[in-house]
Amino acid sequence: MLSTTISNNIFSYLADIGVECVFLVPGGGNMFLIDAVGAEPRIKFIATHHEQSAVIAAEYYSRKTGKLGVALVTTGPGSTNAVTGIAGAWFDSVPVLVLAGQVKVADYNVEGRLRQRGPQEIDLVSMVKKITKMAKTCFCVEEVQNDLDTAIKLAQSGRCGPVVLEIPLDVQSTVFDWHNLKISDNQKIANSSEDVADMEAIESECLWFSNVLKEAERPLIIVGSGVKTSKQNEVLKQLISLKRIPVSLTWPTTDFLSFDNALNAGRFGIVAKRHANFIIQKSDVILVLGSRLDNIQTAFNLDVFGKNAQVIIVDVDLAELEKMPDRFHKIQADLRDFIPLLASVMSKDKVPKSRESWLKEIANLRDRFESETFKSSSQERGRISIYDFVNILSDSFSGGEIVVTGSSGLAIEVFYTHFRNREGQWIGLTTGLGAMGYGLPALLGVAAATNKKVYLFESDGSLMMNLQELQSLKTLNVPVTIFLQNNDGYASIRATQENYFEGRFVGTGPTSKLEIPSIKKVALGFGFEYMAITNLKDIKNNISKALKANGLLICEVFLKRDEKLMPKCSVIRTSDNQLLSAPLEDMSPLLELDDIKGIMGGKVDKMSLRIRAKDN
Hints:
Shape: globular
Oligomer: single chain
Strand content: 15-25%
Number of strands: 20
Structural class: alpha/beta
Radius of gyration: 25 Å
């Protein structure tokens, strides 16, 4: 019988706490860990073809299951390849454990005076300290269990995030039974920026907000991704349904309510439906839950976000609260505590009559702008407008589907602006890093987490960044349909080059030395079925066929190459080369000022006047 090594202990421990899947790339620097995960019967492993993909897949596995995601990589290039995935999980607050191999302790460049001492040695810990909740090289065999326990608790507590443990080869291979070790209980688990108020203080804040809400005529709750990661979706849904409180959503919380729910005030931001931004700016009380209100959400002007509202923001991270304007009421609390307490405090509150009047006003704004259509700015004939495709795709789904998307690019931005999600759909997106190449490994992670079919909405340029993971999906062999948006490369960057650099295109499409191979040949080469949608003729039937496909399918959609993103809070370039950001409520194509006055109660932002001036 083989002796139990530290590596065996690690994966036995992970299985004990509920880990069921590990994404990995084997190498010489993690060979004992690789052997151990293969020997643990309670854990399945999925081999990817790049370490970046392993970490991204682990991130999305965590997003879908609510469990800890685990990736296993080797040292040297295996570790550096993992950094993008670690950064993505950090910005989006997803709990991921990355186990990395490392050279033997005796070969480690401890003092750092040498560039490299051991084979393929690199100091991953120093590289990722600022984008992890914990990063440590486990030199001491007796401390590995404590390090692992602490790392896992950190990853899943407070504001969640990735943790990294490097395990040197000789530590991996040490025969050691840690079952008799006592795990230290005096280690500080929460980060200093997450030292939240006690329950009594949180309850006091909930009581205060409850009283504020009673006086509000136009209240709104912003549902950020923190609600998802804290697993408070259902509690919050019950609260808003009982108290008839409308909610504004971020892109990561698109699936919180179906698009046709009367309480859904839309997805706000610099790229959004107009009504969503008007509602933000018309509200008189806004409760922000688990959203950091980044520049893309506030149109680069946080100071006038919710300009007519008393804004209350709840976040577990003190640093996020400190960046907010002084006029915001800031509450440092974990949403795992705050939302249930708020629901309890408000359970007996009556719904004021004014609430229905506000909901009717929201419904009128939605009716006016939800169906707003945008004629393609492209003169190109034959190909499909991305706006048409997203609208028809929205209607083709019936509800309950699992949908993963890429993270950036024009097609993705149009999707999150115009897609009309249905009841019961789960939609996965990474936003903070916005890296191309997320789609395929994200699809792999979600497909590994469910027994249902999964759909991917991805763009051709992004697909190329991790094309090799088509083989990982083929090996996993679960039904997936990939709607691949072909706009000949990088459409959003082409638009930037056209708008700001007089059409000097560099590396954004076939005419500027960026070419995409035949997707049909790629699909068939990886063992996928293939179909193409090239025009609007019979498009509904073709989408229906793609949705009903039972195997592995790539459905390539040929889009117009030069469409513009609409509606959008534009940045105006003045005659003296200043860049002016339009107000959140004033989106391009610009409305008449009288329209804005009518909606905003006669008020117009000074910047709206300036961006319309001929000389700016």
